[in-house]
Design a protein that fits this description.
Residues 20-211 form the Carbohydrate kinase FGGY C-terminal domain. This protein is of the alpha+beta class. The chain has helices spanning 4-11, 71-81, 90-95, 134-160, 177-187, 199-209, 236-252, and strands spanning 20-24, 28-35, 46-51, 60-67, 104-106, 124-126, 167-170, 191-194, 227-230. Helix 5 (177-187) links the parallel strand 7 and strand 8.
Length: 258
């Protein structure tokens, strides 16, 4: 059997070592295919089995990292701060601002998951001035999702020594084009969103159809699905400077339960 995230990894055709996917929902869930090598993370990630497709087939391993709050931060802005009425408004409002106004939001409502594992961290919004608008805060929330994803990607690259060339994405939040572009910009790699939305179900079907004794198809020869690709458009200097400030914001939200 396959878990949800393993099925999505397979459904995204991350069949080779050095490929990864991220599922965006209430939280974010990243899996990185490490091939036949079981890597014990030294950078805050979990080691898991990706799949074993048959009794005599080799085990394929993965590294896993989770973000506790992603889409849940958008819901919080709507329900608790009431700065917009419908989630569908988010992309439009955030797109009116070309930047966050140097605002950073760390949505550590229940601590921080990978790669920090800090249960005493608490949420914070820093960099607010009298010029800060709701669009800045909404855009900073989208960027927070991307920065947290980059945190995990950085850990994966360090553990595996194979920098990702692209990130496969799925989940409800991927319909937000601005979020996908921000993810590409802040990670420095293309973000690939398949037109096939149900990648988890697809992965389960792919595994079943390629199982020993069935072999309806060979995974290596399946046709690729159509997709949308978002490529980075910011400079390395801008990307790195923004990431440095994100890390500063994260540091400020640590150790509140004293």
């Amino acid at each position: 059997c396959l878990g949800d995230q393993q099925s999505a990894l397979l459904g995204q055709r991350c069949l080779s070592r050095g490929q990864a996917k991220c599922t965006y929902g209430t939280g974010c869930f990243l899996l990185y295919n490490t091939g036949f090598e079981k890597i014990d993370s030294t950078h805050g990630l979990l080691t898991t089995v990706a799949w074993k497709l048959g009794k005599t087939a080799p085990v394929v391993y993965a590294l896993e990292g989770s973000v506790a709050v992603a889409g849940a931060a958008i819901t919080w802005l709507r329900d608790n701060l009431e700065i917009f009425e419908k989630v569908q408004e988010v992309e439009n409002i955030a797109s009116r601002e070309m930047h966050t106004g140097d605002v950073y939001f760390v949505p550590a409502f229940s601590g921080l998951y990978a790669p920090y594992w800090q249960e005493d961290a608490r949420g914070s919004i820093v960099g607010i001035t009298e010029d800060t608008q709701r669009g800045h805060i909404i855009r900073a929330t989208l960027e927070a999702i991307c920065f947290q994803t980059r945190d995990i990607l950085e850990a994966m690259n360090k553990d595996c020594g194979i920098p990702l060339s692209k990130l496969q994405v799925d989940g409800g939040m991927t319909s937000n084009n601005l979020l996908m572009q921000l993810q590409a910009d802040l990670s420095g790699i293309p973000v690939v969103r398949p037109h096939m939305a149900e990648t988890t179900a697809l992965g389960a079907a792919m595994a079943a159809g390629s199982a020993e004794g069935i072999k309806v198809w060979d995974l290596k020869h399946l046709q690729p699905t159509s997709n949308d690709t978002f490529s980075p458009v910011v400079t390395d200097e801008e990307r790195d400077n923004r990431y440095i400030k994100w890390k500063m914001a994260v540091e400020r939200c640590m150790h509140w339960d004293i």
